[in-house]
Structure formats: C-alpha cells, structure tokens
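Researcher: Predict the fold of C-type lectin domain-containing protein.
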Amino acid sequence: MKNAFRISIGLVFLDIILLIHSTPLSSVFLTETLIIFDNESLILQLTTSNKFLCLQACMIESDCLYAHFDYMNCNLYTQHEKNILQMFKNNETMYVKTNIELNEKLKINDTESNYTSLNSSVFWSFKTNSFLSCRPGFQKYKQVSYLCYHSLTDKKTFTESREYCKLGNATLFEPKTENERYFFSQNFWSKNAYVNSVITYKGETYKWPNGSIVMGFAHGQPNNHNSNGKLTKNCLEIHSNGYLNDVSCDKINHITICQHD
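Model: Structure tokens for C-type lectin domain-containing protein follow.
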C-alpha cells in the first residue's frame, strides 16, 4: 500500500515536470523592460546560473507573475507587484508570465487525498531541481513549497535558538520573502520567534547569512529603542503579524523555528 501510494504521488510530480519541459518558454513568458520599485512582493530568491531553472521556478510557483534573472540571481515576484512595476521603467529585463491557463494546470489541488497525505513531507529543491523528502522532524507547509521547517516550543535566547538548529544540521528561520513571513503568521499565531540575522554595531544594516538585506520590518523598525545611544537590540524576531522587530539577543522567546532546503 505504501509503495503504491508513493508511485501515485510520483506520477503526479512527473506530470508536472513533463508539462514544464514540453512547454516552450516563449509561449509562457514575455519580456518587458521594467524597474523593481518595491521588494515587498518578492516571494523567492534563488542562486542559479541557469535562466531556464529560474523561469521553471516561476512556472511551478503559482503566485509568481514576474521573474528577474541576472547572472547568478533569480528573483520571483507576485502579481501584487504588477502595478508598481509598470509605473517605472529602466533597463531591467523582466520575464512576465502570460499563460495563466498553464499556471492553473501546474497547481496541485490540496484537496486530493494522495497529495495532501504526502504534502508535508515532500518539498521542491532548487539545489537539485527535483522533489526531495524533508528530514525527520521537519515538514513542508503549503505557504512555502521549497523549504522544510521544524518548530520547538521551549524558552531560548537567540544564541540558544541558533545553536539548536545547527545541531539538527539546519539554520534558524530566515523569512526572506513575503510568503515566508506569511507562513509564520498563519501557523504560529500569538508567537514571536528569532530569525537568523544579527548586527554588531549601531547603524549596521541587518542582513541574512547570504548577504542579502533583511526586509519586512514593522513600521519604524528597527529602532534600537531605549538604548541611550548604545546598541542594546542587535537581534531580530518575527511577530505573529509577520513583521520583524529588533530585540535584545538575550530576550527569551518561547518558540524556535528551524529550516532546511
């Protein structure tokens, strides 16, 4: 029964891959010269030297309308970015998804019993360009199809949370995109959790370990509030509303989120 179940899921995934590879990209994307005015609608950042993989990722991601590829960087944007993008133009080439019917075909219905049963244990790996199983203790959530998460309810500081994730060969939560912040707000209501970014001096820009700038702050954040001119809040936490706030690294949070790709 278990083997038959896996074969059924595999066929669903195989159909998606065949559909992608049998469809000319020219029939799915148009190119426009636009400027990215706001990254709040960024849903995925990839490091790849293959433009085809970048566009393929946009085809798989149902919320993706725009893809921007530049050498080793691939950024995907939601349809919410459309009006902002069309107001400003420069020499940036954006790939615009035009075949909405194909986009609908690429969606897998979450109500299908076979897919739903396995939905939380299989994710799309952009490292291998294939479906992989989440590690034991981790699961995929419907809001983010390309990462696996593990949560621990326990009192921990920033350092303790980060070390806990490292012990599991994972990293502390890095919500780089709107989708990833939305995932937290939908699944961890009334919770705050540390994210994997820290600064060492006042005025330093918060960045993720890969060097990209942290986005998604609450209004007026980060502000190092009540610091008396000193750096007292050099860590970040995400709130249940999906926005980030600076806090002391010694603050105790009651949940730790780890991730792997």
